[in-house]
Amino acid sequence: MFARHGVSPGEADEALDDPDALVFDPDYASQPGRSIRTIGYSSTAGRMLTVITVRDGDTVYGVNGWPANSSNVRRYREGDNDEP
Q1: What confidence tens digit (pLDDT) does each residue in 17-74 have?
Q2: Nearest-angstrom CA–CA distance, 84 and 75
């Protein structure tokens, strides 16, 4: 995640813990429908991030994360939790 998108696990955790985060469960872009998409703010990164996680029983695994695109930033600011 860091090597490819410049997002550290700590920054991703901050975005996941954002109380105003938008959560799409299941992720609307997931073909198998197993992943969860979260758009949240990381104060360490100083920006909104899109973080993909997968739940396996009681455990949630981080799969990927990247800086949120302008569409996702707009949705976050407007609190738009509807699927695109």
Answers
A1: 999 999 999 998 888 878 999 999 999 999 999 999 999 999 989 899 999 999 999 9
A2: 10
User: Among residues 31, 29, 32, which one has the least CA distance to residue 71?
Assistant: 29
Strand partners, 36: 53
Instruction: Extract the tokens encoding 21.
Output: 């985060």
Please tell me the pTM assigned to this model. Answer: 0.87
CB 21 within 8 A of CB 48: no
Confidence of residue 3 (pLDDT cuts 50, 70, 90): low
The 3-state secondary structure of 32-72 reads CCCEEEEEEEECCCCEEEEEEEEEECCEEEEEEEEECCHHH
